[in-house]
Amino acid sequence: MPTLTPDTLPLPPRPTLTSVSERPEVSAIRARFPEGSIEVQEGLDQPTWIVRRDVLAELARELKTNAKFDVMMDLCGVDFPDREPRFEAVYHLFSMPRHARLRLKVPLAESDLTLPSLMPVWRAIEWFEREAFDMFGFLFEGHPNLRRILCHEGFVGHPLRKDYDAARRWILTEDKIYKPHFDLPEGGDDLFERMTINIGPSHPAMHGTFRLMAVMDGETIVASEVEIGYLHRCFEKMAETHTWQQVIPYTDRLNYCSSFINNVGYCRLVETMLGVEAPPKAVWARTILSEFSRIMDHCVCNGTTLVDAGALTNFWYMFQPREEIYGLLESVCGARLTVSACRIGGLIQDLPPDFMERSRRLVDIIPAFVEDVEKLVDRNRIWLDRSVGIAAISGEEAVDWGWTGPCLRASGVPYDVRKAYPYDLYDTLDWDVPVLYGGDVYDRYRIRMLEIRESLKIIQQLLDRGMPEGPYIVDDPHVALPSKEAAYNQMESMIYHFKLIMDGIQVPAGELYSMVEGANGELGFYAISDGTGKPYRLHARGPCFPIFSTFPRLINGGSLSDSIVSLGGLNIIAGELER
Amino acid sequence: MTQPPTSPSAMPAPSATLPVGQRPILREPHPTEVRPYKPGLAERLYLPLIGGLMVTLRHFLRNLLGTGKSYTIEYPEKRRDYSHRFRGHHILTTRPDGSVRCVACFLCAQACPAECIHIEAAEHPDVNIEKYPVVYEIDMLRCVFCGYCVDACPEEAIIMSNNYDMAYFTREQSIVGKNELMKPFTVDENRLGYRPSFPEEDVQRAKMRREAFDLVTAARQAQNAGNGGKTAASSPH
C-alpha cells in the first residue's frame, strides 16, 4: 500500500504552502507566545499548529492582523475516545493575499470543553462554532447565540461523538420549538407597530427548508434570524459507518444541483490520501462534467432567482440546457440528479461512444439559451430595480464572513480554487475568473452568466484536445474493482473483488483537507483516516454554510420582498448547508 | 446580441498576457466598498424591454407553429428514452432453466450504502452450485439506485432495468421480493439498464457467454443422465 508521505502526494507545486510556518511574519508571531503553547507540525497538506487553549484568542488575532489569515475556512471537532485529552477543535485558516493555509488544533479534555469564541476575529465562525457545540458539545465563551444549529431543540447528546449511537432518534415536541429572541434596535419611529413574520420552512420562497423569522417595521426588516437543519441527514456520522467507497452516493446529496462536483471533490480527497492518480481519461472527463455541472447549477440558481422576482420565463429557458446536460450525465452514469459518477481512482464506467458528439452539441446550443435570458433581463429595468444595490456586501466584509465562490467574486475578490490551487486540468487551459464589484443581487446574477461562458470555454478546449486514450479507472486492485471479466475468470481478481467490497479501500492513516471549486464556492473535505476501511472522521465544508450565516446581515434594513430575491441570489442549497 | 453591461464594474483583464496557470490570484487588498451597476438612460426608459419582448415573441411563434423542440413530454403516454445505463428497478437474472442465478454471496448487501438488500441463503439442490437465496428483498424506498450492487455482483445475477416508475400504495409493497425481481423485463433487451456490459459495446460477448453457459448446462445434463440422475439438477423452486 502506498504511504501518505509528502513525497507521494500529487499536490500541485506550491512553494509557499508547507513552509508557511517558517515565513518571517508567521514565525515572528509564534515566537511571541510562551514556550510550549504552540507546537508546530508540518502537515501533509498544510502546516498544523497544536495550540494551547489559553493562547488561542490572542493567536487568532495576531494571525489575522499580522499574517493576513483573513478567511476562517472551517471549524470542526474530532473525538478520540482513547486519547487524553479526548477532543480536538480543528480550525482551517486561509490567507487570500498570501496564498497560504494553516491548520490549528486545540486539544480539549472531556472534563472542560470551554474555548474562547473567535467571533471578534472572524465573523464567519459564528455558525461553525454553533455546529461544533451541537455536534461535540464544545462551549465557546463569548458566543452570543450558542445553541444547536443542525439538530433540533429536543435533541439530547452530541451526535458526532464516537460513543453516540448512530441509530438513536429523538422526537421534537412542540414545547421545545425554538422561540427567537431578537436584539431590537432602540428608538425608531413608532408610527407602525412592530410585527414578527415567520416564513418557512415549508414556503416556496424559502426554497423548501429554511425558516426566516423577521421583525418588521412597516415594510422594513428591523431584525431577523434564520433557522436551518430541516434537511440535516447526518452525512458526517453516516460516513463514519460506511466504507470509503460507500460515501460517494452520500456526497451526491450535498449540493444536489451539481452532484458531480461533490463526487470529484470527495474522490480527489481519497485519491490524494492513497497516493493514486486517476488516469488521464478520467481526469479529462471529470473536468468536462464538472464544468457542465457548474453550468447546470448556475442555470438553476439564476432561473429560480428570477422566478422569485416574478420573471418566470427565464426559468423555462434556463432549464432547457439543464435538461440536456442531465441527459449527457445519464448516458455516462445512468442517473440524472444523484449521479455517483466518480469512483475512487476514476469513473463509474467507460465513457459512452457518443460522448464527444453529445458534448459538442451541448456546447453549441447552450449559448443561445444564455443569450435569450440576457436579452430578457440583463438591461431590463424591472429586474434592475429589484436587484441593483440589493443585499450588497463589500469584498472585505464578504471575506470576513467566509464567503467563497461566485458570490465572493461578485464582490470584487477574484478567489477561485481552480486558479488558486489548480486541480484536474484547469491549469492547462485558457480561461479567466470573472470579477464584478457590485456585490449585490444583480452582480451575483451577472457573474453566474459570465461563468457559464467561461465554463463553455473550458469544455470547448478540452473537446478540441480530444478524448485521451486509455483506461477510465486506475488499474490497482487495492483501489478499484477489477474488471468483471477478470473477476469472473481469475481467482486472484475474484479475491481482490471480495476484499475490496467486504473490507473497503484501506486508506493509510493520516489527515487531509482537500478542496475543489464547487458551484457555489470552495467545497472542502477534511478527512482523518485511522488506516481502516472506513473514514475515522469526514467533515464537509459546504460553501453555503458561511454564506447563509450572513443572510440576516444582508436583509436587515431592506424590505421583505428584497429578502426573497437575495436568498435566491445566494444560491443556498439545503443539502450542502445542512449536510 | 445584448452587450454585457459596460460599467465601472466590468472585469479588468491586465493578466491576459501571462502564461496560462500563472496568472495572479489576488495581491491587492479586498475592496471595502461596493460599486453597483449604474443603469444608463435607455435602461431607465425601459427601452431594452423591446428586445426582451422580441425573444418571447420568437419563442411563442416557434412553439405555436411547432417548429421548436419541446423539452416536455406527455408522460405517461410518451416516455423518455434513457440510455442503456439507466439505474432503475433491479432485475435478478435467471439461469437458462429459469431458476435464479444469484448464489447468495451477500456481496450486494455488503456493498449497498443504503442497506436495503435483505438475503436469506439456503443450500442449493445442485451440488455444483453452493447456495441460492430463499429470500431476496430490496426495499425500493430505501434504495438510492447507486448501482453498487451491480458492481459488486460476481455472477451478473443482479442488474438494473430502465424502469423508473415505481409507485406503491403502502410501504409493505415497496419491499420487493425475489419473484417480482425475477419477473419483469428479462425478455425485453431494450428495457435493460445499468449492468456490467452494454449491448452497444459487446452484444457479441454476451452471446458468446450465453453459448458457453448453454454448453456447460448441456454437459452437466449429459453427466447427470450418465450418473443415472443421482444429482438431479432440479429447480430450487
Which terms would index this structure?
heterodimer, A: 579 residues, alpha+beta, 3-stranded antiparallel β-sheet, 20 helices, 39% helix, disordered N terminus, B: 237 residues, two-stranded antiparallel sheet, 27% helix, elongated, disordered C terminus
Structure explained in plain terms:
The complex is a heterodimer of chains A (579) and B (237). With 579 residues, chain A is an alpha+beta fold. Chain A has helices spanning 24-31, 56-66, 125-136, 235-240, 248-252, 259-274, 280-308, 312-333, 355-377, 381-387, 395-400, 406-409, 417-420, 441-465, 484-489, 491-503, 544-549, 551-555, 560-570, 574-578; strands at residues 38-41, 48-51, 71-79, 87-95, 100-108, 114-116, 139-141, 194-199, 211-217, 220-227, 342-343, 346-347, 510-518, 521-529, 537-541. In chain A, the strands form five sheets. Chain A has a five-stranded mixed beta sheet. In chain A, helix 6 (259-274) packs antiparallel against helix 7. The longest helix of chain A is centred in the middle third of the chain and has 29 residues, at 280-308. Chain A is globular. By secondary structure, chain B is α+β, with helices and mostly antiparallel strands. Chain B contains six helices and five strands, in the order H-H-E-H-E-E-H-E-E-H-H. Chain B has a three-stranded antiparallel beta sheet with strand order 2-3-5. Chain B has a two-stranded antiparallel ribbon with strand order 1-4. The interface between A and B is large, with 85 and 65 residues.
Concise overview:
The complex is a heterodimer of chains A (579) and B (237). Chain A is α+β, with helices and mostly antiparallel strands and 579 residues long. Helix content of chain A is 39%, strand content 15%.
